[in-house]
Amino acid sequence: MLKCRELVGKADQYLDGELLLRERLAIRVHILMCHHCRRYLRQMGALLRAFPHRHDSASDEEVCAVMEHLQQHADKQDEPA
Amino acid sequence: MEAETLSRLRSGEDGVFSELVREHHRALTALAATVVGVSEAEEVVQNAWLKAHGAIAGFEGRSAIRTWLSRIVINEARMQLRSRKREVFLEDQVSSEGQDPLGDWFNEDGRWRSPPVSWSYDSPEALLMGVDLSGCLDDLLARMPANQRSMLEMRDTSELPFDEICNTLTLSASNARVLLHRARAQVFKLVNHYQETGEC
Ligand SMILES: [Zn+2]
Q: What is the ipTM of this complex?
């Protein structure tokens, strides 16, 4: 049977959907019986879903700087050559 | 992204575009920093927004908008390096130091010695948002080897496909896997400790 340490080693690929059916089944059988690994997988999954939201929204100043840069660029393109 | 927002974006409404900037600018700046360094990241992202603004009409919504924007940022960052005659250089090596960050969580027989505590959070989106924790996470990322940090920013924050990242960073897939595992494991450990003790 898969050991807990081995399961954790494969957890990334499991959560990324990159394991073969046989390997996925071995993990599912293991977590039926092992609540520690079940918890690890659930919480690692939550962590991966959290990552894209890790950064705060940009401040008004930052947004304005980008929009002004766009505006300047557009003005330059409109100028007659 | 909702179809309605997408069609308003494509039609060139600047109000909608500025919301896009608000939502993604900081993540994209962190991404650019992994390639060109912090000091040039802002300039790269400015240029990337120009490109994105010009190309948004062609965005078909097949990938997530974050992924689409991240690709533009990576391209700009690489152009910047080329213009400076530098290259993306990351060690395609897994240093032996640190080994597996979770190694001490297991007994000799491969079972849990110190299993994770149960985490409480309102939603996964909010999991990393606490002020204390996000500061600790920034510190942890700053201390991480550059190749681990890049894997995390590109795969997990920017959600770029794994093989695309390997190409960009010229990492072998097997080493990239190990680097990503170590990076994620360290963050898992940090969050677990924070959940257990309230500090990090
Ligand atoms: Zn287990």
A: 0.87
A9 contacts B25? CB cut-off 8 A: no
Interface size between A and B, measured as CB pairs under 8 A: 122
Residue B183 contacts by C-beta under 8 Å, 6 or more apart in sequence? B144, B148, B149, B151, B152
Q: Do B116 and A43 count as a contact with CB atoms less than 8 A apart?
A: yes
CA angle A1, B98, B191 (to 5 degrees): 75
Higher pLDDT, B9 or B145: B145
Of B110, B159, B185, the CB nearest to A6: B110
- Cβ distance B26 to A57 less than 8 Å, yes or no, reads yes
Helix, strand and coil content of chain B, in percent to the nearest 5, comes to 70, 0, 30
Binned at pLDDT 50, 70 and 90, residue B94 comes out as low
**DSSP letters along B97-132, please?**
TT--TTGGGB-TTSSBSSPPPPP--S-GGGTT-SHH
The residue-averaged pLDDT of B86-102 equals 65
**Inter-chain residue contact A12 with B181, CB threshold 8 Å:** yes
Per the structure, the count of domains in chain A is 1
Residue to mutate among B187, B192, B193, with most A CBs inside 10 A, is B187
Spans of chain A below 50 pLDDT: none
User: How high is the mean pLDDT of chain B?
Assistant: 88
Domains assigned to chain B: 2-83 (1.10.1740.10), 103-197 (1.10.10.10)
Q: How far apart are CA B101 and CA A2, in angstroms?
A: 20
Q: Mean pLDDT across the stretch B165-185?
A: 91
Residue A20 sits in which domain range? 4-78
Q: Which helix (H) or strand (E) holds B169?
A: helix B162-169
